[in-house]
Prior knowledge:
This protein is an alpha/beta fold. The chain contains five helices and eight strands. The chain has helices spanning 2-15, 38-42, 69-74, 167-176, 181-196; strands at residues 23-25, 47-48, 52-56, 64-67, 82-84, 88-92, 97-102, 114-120. The radius of gyration is 34 Å and the shape is globular.
Amino acid sequence: MGRALALSFLVMFLASPTVFGVDHTVGDSAGWALNTDYSTWASGKTFTVGDNLVFNYDSSTHQVDQVDKSGYDGCSSSNIIKNYNDGNSKVPLTKEGKVYFICPTPGHCSGGMKLEINVVAASTTPTTPTTPSGGSSPPTTPSNPSPSTPSGSGTTPAATPPAAPSPKTNAAVSVSSGITHLVGSLVVAAIGLGFMG
Ligand SMILES: [Cu+2]
C-alpha cells in the first residue's frame, strides 16, 4: 500500500517537470472585474502546464466559468466545463491548449469579463532555482565506532574508567579536550583506582 503510494507519487513527480508552477493573478491588482482588458493582460505572458490562474473577485457580483471556445465567443455558459464562485479561485493549468473563462453574470462577459489563454507545454527552461541532489553523494561515513557516546562531554568521566581496560588513554583524551581542574582531578583519581583495581 505504502509502496504503491510512493510509486504513484514518483510517477506524478516525473510526469510533471514543472512541479512548482507560477501563479498568474488574472488582471493583476484589478483582479477579475469589469473594465479590465484581459486580452491585454494575457498578451506577452507565457502560461505553462503546471502554472495556476488565480482569480480574485467579489463573489457576490462575479463568478468564473471555464467554458469552451463557443461559450467564450458567444458569452454562454451552456457548455460550462467548471464553475468557480468562492471569490479566490486557483485554477490549475493541467494541459496544453486554449483555455477560456467568462463571467456568467449577465452583461459581464459581453462587457469584457472574458479571458482566453494559450497554455504551452513545460519546456526545458529551468524555473526552479535549486537543482535536486543527484543522489551520488556518499550515503554513510565508514567506521564510526561510537555514535552514542560523545567524546568531549566531560560530565562524569570518572564513572567509566573502573571498567575500562586502559585508563591512561582515557585520561589523555580528557585532558586534551580541556576539561576543568575538578574533573581532571577526578580522572587522576580514577587512574589511581584503575591501577589499584
Ligand atoms: Cu462579472
